[in-house]
Amino acid sequence: MSLKSIQITSRVFEGQKPGTSGLRKAVKVFQQQHYTENFVQCILSAVGDRLAGCTLVVGGDGRYYSAEAVDIIIKIAAANKVAKLIIGQNGILSTPAVSCIIRKYQVIGGIILTASHNPGGPDNDFGIKYNIENGGPAPENITDKIYELTKTIQTYSIVPDLKCSIEKLGTYVYKVDDSDFTVQIIDSVNDYLELMKTVFDFPKLRTLLNNSPTNKNSFRVLINSMHGVTGPYVKRIFLDELQTDEKSIVNAIPLPDFGGGHPDPNLTYAAELVQSLQNGDYDFGAAFDGDGDRNMILGKKAFFVTPSDSLAILASHLDCIPYFRQTGVKGLARSMPTGAGVDRVAKELNVEVFEVPTGWKYFGNLMDAGRLSLCGEESFGTGSDHIREKDGIWAVLAWLSVIESSGKSVEKICHEHWAKFGRNYYSRYDYENCDADSSKKMMQDLTAKITQPSFVGETFVSGDKKFVVAKADDYEYVDPIDHSVSKNQGLRIIFTNGSRLIFRLSGTGSSGATIRLYIESYEPADGQIDLDAQVALKPLIEVGLQISQLSSYTGRQQPTVIT
Description:
Elements: E1 6-9, E2 23-26, H1 27-30, H2 35-47, E3 55-60, H3 66-79, E4 84-92, H4 95-105, E5 109-113, E6 125-131, H5 140-150, E7 155-158, E8 170-176, E9 179-186, H6 190-199, H7 202-208, E10 221-224, H8 230-241, E11 249-250, H9 271-278, E12 284-288, E13 295-299, E14 303-305, H10 307-315, H11 322-327, E15 331-335, H12 341-349, E16 352-356, H13 361-368, E17 374-377, E18 381-384, H14 392-406, H15 410-421, E19 423-434, H16 436-450, E20 459-462, E21 465-474, E22 477-478, E23 485-486, E24 491-495, E25 500-505, E26 513-523, H17 533-548, H18 550-554, E27 561-562
Parallel strand pairs: 3-4, 3-5, 4-9, 10-11, 10-12, 15-16, 15-17
Antiparallel strand pairs: 1-7, 2-6, 5-6, 8-9, 12-13, 13-14, 17-18, 19-26, 19-27, 20-21, 21-24, 22-23, 24-25, 25-26
Helix pairs in contact: 2-3, 2-5, 10-12
């Protein structure tokens, strides 16, 4: 018996504009009648003529409302003549795994159900984003098309009687409008694990993590999945493959509300990991966000590696990883707000270095053109051209490869790096859930102030430190591959001593506004490279707050999160 598709009359919902990582809203917004259906239909309509007969990947971080959203996607995809869906068991696929599967099976793209590092649960956030055939996030020309479609949509197509369980592995074929429609439920981990084995030397990592009583050089790790999607991946990789002990793995069961926590791997929201490492029982710690693309790295006694330092240090040790010994290093890149330490490594390696706007999609063009091997963002994202997403587990395996190869601790590796390249002191202040109108007003007034010609050359003093403005602008990026232009990517103030202040309004929240202040100051190798970062940056932070008048606009005297 053939199932029939039907047209449902809908209505336009305002504000369905995808940000840098898709559409993120409160769960209750997505639960409105027709809301999720509209957005899914607009994604499929944006694919256009290539949709008929295509294959799509579907999965996500397992947060609240995921199962309902997968059911909607199945029914709408069937009605839109998609030939096949590849879905992670129980709807679970990490964002890096989706990218891996899209690339491995050369399908047209994928739909990822995640709000990344945002909290989950019925009173928190949900999200949907579309990744294209290279495995990376959809570029602006596609997300803009999706948005335009959401402003005019009147109907969507659906097969209401199609029922498909996503709990059991297998391939299921349905007749829809007299054509075959296939749903394949796959193991969530297998394809990603297979890829990791081609990138890293698992036997060497297994030796490093051997915690048997007879191993006199035991190296203890603590991996915290924060009840996000990485749990099944961590179990298979670290327990089954690398044979570390079960005490090394915590919070490895994905939960719809992430156990009531905030699945953002930073010093504030991953405080449990920090506390566990402070007593010195572990040599290495790591945490991941909800969908598995972000990571935090800690050394013994909770020695914190900033994401900017992590990128630069991995860049200088890529010969420790078999993948790069085979492919070579084509180029390095960072997002504009990320610390510039990697720039100095690129100069040492004599390779290109790129500065791009925030958003992983900007790295994809460079990778596809063969000009980029390793990249990162200060927002705890690191990755390489093995896929087209940042990849938390990959970053941890990369760090463990450096540790195994060098025989040195995390702290020793960092200090030796600073002694060679100098240190980019770096911090980010997040002011979360600020009043949106006041935040927007602050950014508008700050833009007007710093773009005045007279602002260049202005001097600011804090304590015994003097900062003279060398350049100030609203960052604009011209893609060197397709020459597309991305404007209004962040306010930059660059001083004559190389220090930087950057202000951005976050595009990844579902309510209110998050103002981010990025602070960076370079200290040469023969300078003071062993200070506490907050002490070293205090004068520059004070200048940033003075210039922006952030406290006056927001009423906030302290940031929500400091990293």
